[in-house]
Amino acid sequence: MAKRAINAATSDAADKKSSVQSLAKAFRVLEAVAASEAAMTLSELALASQLDPGTTHRMLNTMIELGYVERLEGKRFRLSLKVLDLGFHAIGRQDLRTLSRPMLRSLVGEVSEAASVGVLTGADVLYVERMRAGVTRLGVDIRVGTLIPAATTMIGWCILAILPQAELERVLQLESRQRDFRDVATPADLLEQLATIKRLGYALSPSRISSGLTVLAVPICDQDGYPVAGISVAAPSIRMNPDELRERALEPLRNAAKMIARGLEASGGASSG
């Protein structure tokens, strides 16, 4: 029994060492705010989260700066509507993944080696689903959860191309969270490229992050024409030139995008990321 207790204590110590205690405290405060129907004072939140007032105050200030908590008159605090985005985005992306899988599976094979779906999150594209025809690695190993700067990927281009102008300008001023592709320069004529993509309705180009691949992408739009995601196929340039890829894959890709958009609309799960 003593040995088991020592092992348990050692395990608990290791778990604490690998966790971020300040983050855990922040979530305790956030959960305390969320648990109350009425706005709470600092002292009430400190008591509910079992933290001292100074720590609670710092956590609240951080969450206010991030937009997840609002400060009301009378020094009371409540959740902001931004918190809903976390849940809605998670639900929307889960629906997007579920809807995308059969569509992506139908796109890989004879024409393309890989098919992907991604959403815009800040300055980056988050890959939420991906299918490959085989186990052979294609250039950069893109997986579900990979972040790539939107200005360097065809999915990003086809989404950026049809964003409202003010939103496009805002996104292009943001800094990417992905450091692995910082050396891939944004093309000087990006805006001209985006204008062409908007006119054509698709992006087609040699991959800017994987040599030897040609990528074709189209946006997935909601009923208002807003790009909630993008879908792409990739094929080795040595086996298929851009014109051949467009001729053989564009219509299937567009049909897949329409089917996913309809599914998202029916499920209520469309999310811009």
Descriptive report:
By secondary structure, this protein is α+β, with helices and mostly antiparallel strands. The chain folds into two domains: 63 residues, Winged helix-like DNA-binding domain superfamily/Winged helix DNA-binding domain (Arc Repressor Mutant, subunit A, Orthogonal Bundle); 184 residues, Beta-Lactamase (2-Layer Sandwich). 49% of the residues lie in helices and 19% in strands. Helix 2 packs across helix 3 and helix 5 crosses helix 9.
Blueprint of the fold:
Layout: H1 2-18, H2 21-35, E1 40-41, H3 42-49, H4 53-66, E2 69-72, E3 76-79, H5 82-107, E4 114-121, E5 124-132, E6 147-149, H6 154-160, H7 165-173, H8 190-200, E7 203-206, E8 213-221, E9 227-236, H9 242-267
Helix pairs in contact: 2-3, 2-4, 3-4, 5-9
- The CATH superfamily label of the largest domain reads GAF domain
Alpha-beta classification: alpha+beta
Determine the N-to-C terminus distance: 50 Å
Major beta sheet summary: 6 strands, antiparallel
Give the topology string: H per helix, E per strand: HHEHHEEHEEEHHHEEEH
Tell me the domain tally: 2
What would you call the shape? elongated
Mean pLDDT: 80
